[in-house]
Amino acid sequence: MQESLVNEVQEYTNKYLEKKSKKDRKKIGQFFTPAAVADFMASLSGDYENFEELNILDCGSGTGILATALVDKFKTHKNLKRLHIDLYEVDSDVLPILTKSMEYIKHKLENSPIKFTYKIIHGNFVTLNVDNWNSESVGCYDLVISNPPYKKISKSCEEAVAMNSIVHGQPNIYFLFMAMALKLLKENGEFIFINPRSFTSGLYFKKFRTWFLENVNISRIHLFVSRKNVFGNDQVLQETIILKAVKSRLKEDMMCISESTDSDLSKNIFQIYMPYNTVITKNENKFILLPTNEEDVKIMNLMSNWKYNLIKLGYKLKTGPVVDFRSLEYLKNEPSDETVPLLWLHNFNDGLIRFPVTKDGKPQYILNNSESKKLLLENKDYLLLKRFTSKEEKRRLQAAIYSSKEFNYPQIGFENHLNYIVKESGNMELNELFGLYALFNCDILDKYYRIVNGSTQVNATEVNSMPLPEKELIVRIGDLILKENDLSVDKCNDIVNNIFNI
Ligand SMILES: C[S@@+](CC[C@H](N)C(=O)[O-])C[C@H]1O[C@@H](n2cnc3c(N)ncnc32)[C@H](O)[C@@H]1O
User: Fold this and answer.
1) Cα(60) to centroid(ligand 1), Å
2) For residue 128, which atom of ligand 1 is closest to its CA?
3) Tell me: the pLDDT tens digits for 170-191?
4) Pick from 347, 331, 443: which is nearest to 403 by CA?
5) Ligand 1 site-directed mutation target among 28, 234, 242, most atoms within 8 Å of CB
6) Which of 125, 138, 209, 448 reaches 20 to 30 Å from 352, CA-CA?
7) Domains of the chain by range and CATH?
């Protein structure tokens, strides 16, 4: 029996898609895995040739294409006698298709030595398993495969409350699925998920990431080149990864990271084995670093020798405190004795700050009175970093020097779309400021940031823990760039690459 079961389920899925609107599917985080991706995920499962029984979980199963892909792989296993699948699905509209898929498999396996059974559990995968989450006992599944729903939920939702030990701020249901599925696995059971990349960095995922990484041994992470089209016509704008891991507190020495284009999974355009300890950062944030080419790997190796970061060096990156729509009463278009400058992203100008610049009617001044004072900063030297960049922009890290000398005011306002790096005690020397500027404006740090974080936002947690060289080197870089009197990215790259022999 060599025909592909997955292709048949793909047909059922296509028919269902004709009937259910995108809008309705979006509400429940429903988008379906294409057959080629499902096959690829199933191909990552381990060697079960000697198993007589397999107990599989597919949570958020939709039409059941992922479980079907596993059956396709296991249906020729000589020793397999029993194959059972539990499928959780909340959407009653898709249940008839799910049943049809499972009945189709049952029919196809009728004359095989494998006794195939399945159970469709119509309900909420997370809340139905709260008791298991709170129990000490280990799970019952050999393997879990899932494309979980992707949806932000409120912190007070039943799911979030039930799993609050791994929730910080507003959670996304996808990582609650990951945690619950892991909990339900047997020790050394296999975990194969396709999900957004966002949990690999960021403060909001830290509690989950820490718990998850303690309990899994990741063997493979696969990235898709573009954030579009992994899911066919359903454009999922999140960067998506496939993760294969085993439930175990022991870690392998190495982990495989690969990348392919969206459409052709058979061709990895990049594949590398990296030490586990290099991929998972050693600091308390436990970021998962995802290089996508040889140059990224070189950068990771270089920066793994840098022992400092902004915090250790006495600096800190913070976010501009002025949120315009919350501060309307203080914002002014014209200066007066009571106002100080308010800087926005559009004041960035080739590494420096140009002021005033009128753009889209955004006020360039903010009142400096007893009420607004809490939003203002002391007028000292800062390195400004854009907090948001567009997907089309080449660089994530874009820096500009704020020199206190240029602004004859006691206070200054920074709008919330920009970040600033401040020296926690005292003011920065000129060569420190320019040294940090050159580093944050060079390609090495920009690429490192992308290895850590796939989004277009520049977050404080990531930047504050980025490895940096010792202060003496930063100052030396600053002296060199001051001497050159050229703040271009090319010049920053020349100087930094030269110092580090790249
Ligand atoms: C991203 S889709 C993936 C469907 C299918 N596994 C696939 O790969 O094509 C996620 C599925 O989870 C279902 N779902 C959403 N929330 C759920 C919940 N709390 N419990 C169980 N299923 C849920 C949705 O209805 C949807 O069918």
Assistant:
1) 3
2) 20
3) 999 999 999 999 999 999 999 9
4) 347
5) 28
6) 448
7) 5-19+28-292 (3.40.50.150), 315-499 (3.90.220.10)
